[in-house]
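Reading a protein record of the kind used here takes only a little practice. Think of the row as the fold of the chain written in a discrete alphabet. With that in mind, consider the following protein and its fold in token form:
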Amino acid sequence: GDIQDNRGFRRTRLGASGKVAENVGYLLEMDFALLGRPSFRDVRMDISSVPVLGNVRVGVFRQPFGMDELTSAREITFLERSSLQGLAPFRQTGVAFYDTNSSESVTWMASAFGTNTDPWGNSIGDRGYGIASRITSVMAEDKGADFLIHGGLGYSYLNTPNNRFLYRNNQEYSGPVGLPSSVPFFADTGLIPAENANLFNAELASTRGSWHAQSELRYNLLNLNNGGVAGFPSFYAQTGFILTGEHRPYNKTNAVLGHIKPKDPVG
């Protein structure tokens, strides 16, 4: 198709966070660049120190599936996330529980949510449902050498009320949002008649000094309405080296590669 010449804002966000009680916190983030402006991003409440469950989260939030999806847009390696995002549940309205071990070397999170969430956290039509889960581990670490190896596994089950699935992606291009005709979908399956989807994800990442890398392998298994099965395997790998000598840290709380802090900021 014809890729048009456009200008626009990719993200324009305002956020607020705080506590309403000693163990109850909130996050409210709005985006003024998305379709239906302003739109919800993360609008959630977190309750900590819950017996058995650890911590509980309620609201609209990024579901626990995929390392790239859970990395903040301010900290991803490239301008956009990998094309695998088209297979993930990403932001949905639901409830989750999460926790870590005492050393924060192992994290786990599981959620239940309603599928087909609009830009304001509401359901679109008759709501489907889904679950997502992720467990991660720091498999090796040497703080003196700024060295770490991360591994993780994820699983998600998705069910839609209309028994239709659609996967499409602009190949790491997004925006200006709200102008769908500006760039064609390079990958587009069309509507697939299927009862449910099972998604499996494996992630691996490492950082050492100024070098960092991460990769994910994802497999989507669709149970078709005619009794057959369709599989969608996908993966990505990316790496970077910081020429000015900084180290990309690891965020143990979220189990993702974190924010690079310049040693000598300009000015």
